[in-house]
Automatic annotation (TrEMBL):
<comment type="similarity">
    <text>Belongs to the SUA5 family.</text>
</comment>
<dbReference type="InterPro" id="IPR050156">
    <property type="entry name" value="TC-AMP_synthase_SUA5"/>
</dbReference>
<dbReference type="GO" id="GO:0000049">
    <property type="term" value="F:tRNA binding"/>
</dbReference>
<dbReference type="GO" id="GO:0006450">
    <property type="term" value="P:regulation of translational fidelity"/>
</dbReference>
<dbReference type="InterPro" id="IPR006070">
    <property type="entry name" value="Sua5-like_dom"/>
</dbReference>
<keyword id="KW-0963">Cytoplasm</keyword>
<dbReference type="GO" id="GO:0005737">
    <property type="term" value="C:cytoplasm"/>
</dbReference>
<protein>
    <recommendedName>
        <fullName>L-threonylcarbamoyladenylate synthase</fullName>
        <ecNumber>2.7.7.87</ecNumber>
    </recommendedName>
</protein>
<feature type="domain" description="YrdC-like">
    <location>
        <begin position="6"/>
        <end position="302"/>
    </location>
</feature>
<dbReference type="GO" id="GO:0061710">
    <property type="term" value="F:L-threonylcarbamoyladenylate synthase"/>
</dbReference>
<keyword id="KW-0808">Transferase</keyword>
<dbReference type="InterPro" id="IPR017945">
    <property type="entry name" value="DHBP_synth_RibB-like_a/b_dom"/>
</dbReference>
<dbReference type="GO" id="GO:0003725">
    <property type="term" value="F:double-stranded RNA binding"/>
</dbReference>
<dbReference type="Pfam" id="PF01300">
    <property type="entry name" value="Sua5_yciO_yrdC"/>
</dbReference>
Length: 383
């Protein structure tokens, strides 16, 4: 059978039975396979094509809460979480929000204490920071001094932000980080599955994975298909992700189930972000409060993933870890957020960085630093 290719969404819409097909389409960083979320027979075909375990469930790609009726249990979503879901995942660099804005789920108490710590950190670090120079030009010993001051400030922060109860502080910091996340890498949220949610969507879990998108191409695709989509990477389960339309075609052509190619329409466009930007697959977050998780446990639907960041944790905590940016304020902002979310992780990483800058026998350059930070985050996750 011949794989049908289209070059844009207008051509897709012109295909008579496109809503009854598997759509292979570019996402932020990889190619995905999807269909309307209510097309259960087609979803089963995707399972077959990917050789995917049904217990894993699927990501649901949506552009509004209304598209999730019957899939997500809205009674277990707080008003703050509903508001947050509507303002995340803007295109890279286009988020209109700042820590000074009133953001969903971030209380006035947290915001005031956070901004006070933020201001104090800037006041302490600015004399060290060479005015008029990019941070890349700052001597390595001054990098180390900045790291040392950050560690000292983080410990002082405990007297302010850390007076807020632990669960509440971590959740508010997580909401703040999600609202400000601006790299183009999507955030997928684990939300309570509705009683009517098909098991093929949530698998063995009591939650269903939902990614709300503001990306214009994906928003238009959802609109054309008439509702939320299931979304999964266009590769065999457990294998490397596919990043081009030609790779999708090759996978289907060489598979012994190549007859399935007849069920697929391939949108022949590049992924949304150039691979050189390093945008990865989505961050997975459980944003539910402890109280909501307890209510969900009573429903005994399935496994509840841990509260917080469940996948690609480093990608929401890592930005500016090494303070490479000319924007010192942004670096301090991320430092405070990651400290509130995971204090142990932050102190651990900065201690490693401090030792790195103080070691005269180590070559100090951007490539070495990036490699060190990747190693640190991987090592910490294995602890």
């Amino acid at each position: 059978m011949t794989l049908q290719r289209v070059s844009n969404l207008a051509e897709l819409k012109a295909v008579n039975d496109f809503k009854e097909k598997i759509i292979a389409y570019p996402t932020e960083s990889v190619f995905g396979l999807g269909c309307r979320v209510d097309k259960l027979e087609i979803i089963e075909e995707i399972l077959n094509l990917k050789d995917r375990n049904i217990e894993k469930g699927f990501v649901v790609l949506a552009s509004s809460l209304e598209q999730l009726k019957g899939i997500v249990d809205f009674s277990l979503l707080t008003s703050e979480l509903k508001e947050l879901l509507e303002i995340v995942n803007y295109p890279r660099g286009n988020s209109p929000y700042s820590p000074f804005d009133d953001l969903p789920g971030v209380s006035r108490e947290f915001k005031n204490k956070f901004l006070l710590a933020y201001q104090r950190a800037l006041e302490r670090l600015m004399p060290i920071y060479k005015k008029g120079y990019l941070i890349e030009s700052v001597e390595h010993q001054e990098h180390g001094e900045i790291i040392g001051v950050l560690l000292e400030l983080m410990l002082q922060v405990q007297q302010g932000i850390f007076s807020i109860p632990d669960d509440k502080r971590k959740l508010e910091a997580l909401y703040l980080a999600c609202a400000l996340h601006n790299s183009g890498q999507g955030i997928t949220f684990l939300l309570p599955a509705a009683k009517s949610c098909p098991q093929i969507l949530h698998g063995k879990f009591a939650t269903v994975a939902v990614r709300f998108t503001q990306e214009p191409f994906l928003v238009k695709l959802i609109k054309i298909l008439g509702g939320a989509l299931v979304s999964t990477s266009a590769n065999y389960s457990g294998q490397d992700s596919i990043r081009t339309a030609d790779q999708v075609a090759q996978m289907l052509d060489t598979d012994f189930r190549s007859y399935l190619a007849d069920q697929v329409i391939l949108i022949d466009k590049p992924v949304i972000y150039d691979p050189k930007l390093g945008v990865k697959e989505s961050i997975l977050v459980n944003p539910l409060s402890t109280q909501t998780i307890k209510k969900l446990e009573k429903k005994n639907i399935g496994i509840i993933p841990p509260q917080g960041i469940n996948r690609n944790k480093q990608d929401i905590l890592y930005p500016n870890m090494d303070i490479p940016s000319a924007n010192l304020a942004e670096s301090v902002l991320y430092t405070l957020m990651r400290f509130c979310i995971d204090r142990t992780f932050t102190v651990y990483c900065y201690n490693v960085l401090s030792n790195y800058y103080e070691d005269p026998d180590v070559e100090h350059n951007e490539a070495q630093l990036n490699a060190l930070m990747q190693e640190v985050t991987a090592r910490y996750q294995q602890r």
